[in-house]
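User: Structure with 2-acetamido-2-deoxy-beta-D-glucopyranose, tokens only please.
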Amino acid sequence: MALFLTNLILLPLLLLANFSPTPSLCYVSPYAARVHQSATQTSAYRTYIVLVEPPPPGADEEGHRRWYQTFLPSSHIGESGEPRLLHSYTEVFSGFTAKLTEAELDAVAKNPRFVRAFPDRMLQLMTTHTPEFLGLKNGTGFWSNAGYGKGVIVGLLDTGIYASHSSFDDHGVPPPPMKWKGSCKAVRCNNKLIGAKSLVGDDGSYDYDGHGTHTSSTAAGNFVTGASDHGVGMGTASGIAPGAHIAMYKVCTAEGCEESAVVAGMDAAIKDGVDVLSLSLGSRTSVSFRNDPIAIGAFSAISKGIIVVCAAGNRGPIPQSITNDAPWLLTVAAGSVDRRFDAGVHLGNGKHIDGEALAQVTKPTSKPYPLLYSEERRYCNYEGDSSIAGKILLCEDNFSKVQQSKIRNIMSAGVVGVVLFNNRICGYSTFLHASNSSIVQVTAADGNALIAYTASTESSSAASLAYNDTQYGVRPAPVVAWFSSRGPSKRAPGILKPDILAPGLNILAAWPPSTSSGQGLFNVISGTSMATPHVSGVAALIKAIHPDWSPAAIKSAILTTLDIVNSTSGSILDEQYKKADVYDRGAGHVNPARAADPGLVYDLNSVDYAGYICWLLGDSGLATIMRNSSLTCAKLARVQEVQLNYPTITVPLTSMQFTVNRTVTNVGPADSKFKAKVDVPRSLTVRVVPETLSFSKIGEKKTFSVSVSGHGLDKEGVHVEGSLSWVSEKHVVRSPIVFVVTGGGTAPAPAPSS
Ligand SMILES: *[C@@H]1O[C@H](CO)[C@@H](O)[C@H](O)[C@H]1NC(C)=O
Ligand SMILES: *[C@@H]1O[C@H](CO)[C@@H](O)[C@H](O)[C@H]1NC(C)=O
Ligand SMILES: *[C@@H]1O[C@H](CO)[C@@H](O)[C@H](O)[C@H]1NC(C)=O
Ligand SMILES: *[C@@H]1O[C@H](CO)[C@@H](O)[C@H](O)[C@H]1NC(C)=O
Ligand SMILES: *[C@@H]1O[C@H](CO)[C@@H](O)[C@H](O)[C@H]1NC(C)=O
Ligand SMILES: *[C@@H]1O[C@H](CO)[C@@H](O)[C@H](O)[C@H]1NC(C)=O
Ligand SMILES: *[C@@H]1O[C@H](CO)[C@@H](O)[C@H](O)[C@H]1NC(C)=O
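Assistant:
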């Protein structure tokens, strides 16, 4: 930690050490990332994000710019006279982005008003597609009560937007609220698309990639009938908050997203007056909050009442792979939906295996063909093999572009079809590939069954493929997607991350008519990028009903009303069909209708977070993140991570009893009475004091404590899950409790008494 103090001598080293984590858009690329390297940096100039003390009070935008210039060498760069100052921030923090040499940065750092500097990082943009889908039911009472999100502005930091798409028609959407200060530079701006701005140096906001169009329409796209990706998934599409306004901040190009542009986008969004910020991007790995401009910028946003929703990352199922894990962010994991692009494999022995296919290209046929599998050609590397004509090949998906192109070649060599099975890691969670040809994708387990079938001598090893349209009500659902990044957070293990699970596998949403990675007006892609805007849309709906609620209150409302079981009361499963745990799915699966009326909320304000930042990072962290020179850690109560008033509870289990305090605010009927209901494994004893909470006013706060002791749990790092619910006549306010064994573990279990 000490290394990260603002230290002039250490700074260049620190900067180099920090350069490795590469942020990326959080949708899944099965293919090799296209690494963007700006053409060989001829000079020693590098782009830095520099945080400095604020300008004298009252400085306007030009005043900020002049102030920032005082930190910089007066010379321009090279013969071209390129300016040094690239972005001048006024909202996210006092600071700027500039081109400097290392020696120049050292000089800037000697200015007593210098705070901190980060090298600008290039977020890789990953390319790929898979076809198709998204399922939304029209008109629950809650949806119309929330006016479908009317009056709320959802800002997205993304690749731009295809403004002409029918998802961005404005029928039924009123003009933006008076507070809106943004501008719109797109081919079509209307009451739906009220803001469009590019921070990447082009003058439009056109989406050459598709990602930003997809996420925008998921969060707040209007109703469109006849949405379909090449004929599959036909139906009415809409975003979660179809009545809300959209503001797009284009911070990524096909080559990637520069962190300085992302921060510039946040700065503009805060200034413009958005209510919700949706970030389907992030670092590849989590970074200390005080070295993470996105976390710092987001803190500024939440201090101004903007809720910030971020993707958890796509590095699952590796434990601790979560990114965007600051407690003030709402961090979203990805799961499946109950919809399937059905395609079956019928075997010669009469068995039927259910698979999926995005391109339902051939007509169902009962004609069987030989099914071929070869261990050496496991990945479909059959090039030059003429014996494959007229056969169906069984291959393992290896998520490479090379494999996809080999499959295309094989098809043109007369192969009837390919059955592509998931690898062991993906298990039952099938990531659908874009394709024009007869590819049916099946789970890892079905892959093994098919291999066994081809090896069995009794059977004729024949198979036929049949397409069966889009099926709904598929079970089990939701299932955590294999790629969804897992907790616990390395930075903040005492705060449960991810927060929430939302649909992110094989999601259908709007798409530009033509991109390098897909065509058509709707496309199916997957990632925590796709899960994020679902939750941003839900936040917009809650904001529409409760415009005065803080970001923490909205988050609490969403997190304490989640589904922890599926629609038939079974556990939510992971990609291996094991029971998903808190580090896979967070507090549970999003349930918009209940979130509007949570009964109680766990609220937090900037000062609470400041106490936490002091505990975690001390004064230098506070100065970097809070940007309020009148606040110092000496004046604040330090708030230990586990004591932060978060709607989920993480308790360290030690040999001693441990007590966690929480404060709830009544947002339900004025007169309400809640009783504590604790659900924990037998190895734990939990006492809640007091056991009932009686309220007589809306807005009234009550504090309670949860004391925990465990028995016979001695494996360091092991965690067990339980819950605390405050139950009234009308409400269940549920918080998962994660008990983490720390230190030497808990006291031994008492000897059996018999
Ligand atoms: C969904 O509801 C909206 C708003 O009431 C309406 O315009 C639209 O036609 C509905 N769509 C369907 C498929 O029912
Ligand atoms: C995937 O399989 C193809 C053969 O279809 C092979 O050429 C390629 O190297 C494999 N890639 C990876 C990453 O395993
Ligand atoms: C589908 O076919 C078209 C034209 O035949 C081609 O341009 C496109 O790249 C193909 N898409 C995929 C995903 O193979
Ligand atoms: C096709 O789907 C229907 C449900 O819509 C189902 O009853 C039927 O068994 C399926 N057929 C095949 C061949 O999978
Ligand atoms: C719910 O989950 C259980 C397993 O936990 C599964 O057996 C069941 O099919 C699921 N139901 C639905 C509707 O997904
Ligand atoms: C800075 O903190 C002080 C003390 O809590 C507070 O009164 C003041 O409003 C804060 N200033 C800003 C700009 O947030
Ligand atoms: C929790 O609350 C109890 C009772 O109000 C108090 O004695 C204790 O100091 C509090 N603990 C923390 C960590 O705030």
